[in-house]
Amino acid sequence: MAENRSSTLKSLTTPRAAAAAGVAFAVLFGANLILIRSSLPEGAQPGSQWLDAASGKMKIAAILMPFAGISFLWFIGVVRDGLGRLEDRFFSTVFLGSGLLFLAMMFVTSAIGAGLSASNAALAHNTAGYTDVATFGQMVVLTLSKTYALRMAAVFMISLATIWLRTGLMPRWLVYVSYLLAVALLIASDVSMWLTLGFPVWVLIVSLLLLARAGVFDALREEHKL
Question: Which residues cross the membrane (predicted)?
Fold first, then answer.
């Protein structure tokens, strides 16, 4: 009896846990992206952004990123656990691998930004030589976030949407929206860094749906008790 009760409670609380982790990731990662993007305004001389007070935003982004990463890992783990016996090894491998690659690249992006900001403070007396390094760092940050990490996020969305399409675990409209947004990110990821915000918005939508379903499960449980 105790074992059956534990299994039932796990199946009921998992969607709520996934939703909480996804909402936390969406908020923290969205704030992280806004801080990074506002630190690299368009039209400014390459490398000059790291030499002003705005570079402090990168330090805040570096502080937020680990917490966003923890939330994203929890989101991946709980969503994958929810697939249960319906899990397809091929698509689950792509889903897990692309998610981890995306997260690793964003960690590197935040670390480089924080390192350049710290170097700016340490080498304030030698800005001439530092500008070249800052320019290189800025190009690495933009390339990692816009070209590589964003495309891994798109692969993450496509693989998960395909799993939902084949299992029917999520509504069809969400599957189609996921495909459209993922294709847009794959094709236009280099157009603007603001497009990266589409990924945390998508995670937020998925999390809210999971949270709503958790409420339905709770209502069914109360009705069953009655």
Answer: 20-40, 60-79, 91-116, 148-166, 173-195, 201-220
